[in-house]
Amino acid sequence: MKWGDKFPPMYVNRLYGMVAKNTTKDFRFVCFTDDDTDIRDEVEIQPLPELDIPAGLPERGWRKLTVFSKNFGGLEGLTLFLDLDVVIVNNIDALFTHSGAFLIAHDKHRPQRLEGNSSVFRFKIGQHTHLLDNFKTNFSTIRQEVRHEQAYLSREIKKTGDLTFWPDEWVPSFKYRCAPSWIKSWFQAPSIPDNAKIILFHGLPNPPEAAKGISGKWYRHIQPSPWITKYWVE
Question: What is the pTM of this model?
Answer without folding.
Answer: 0.94
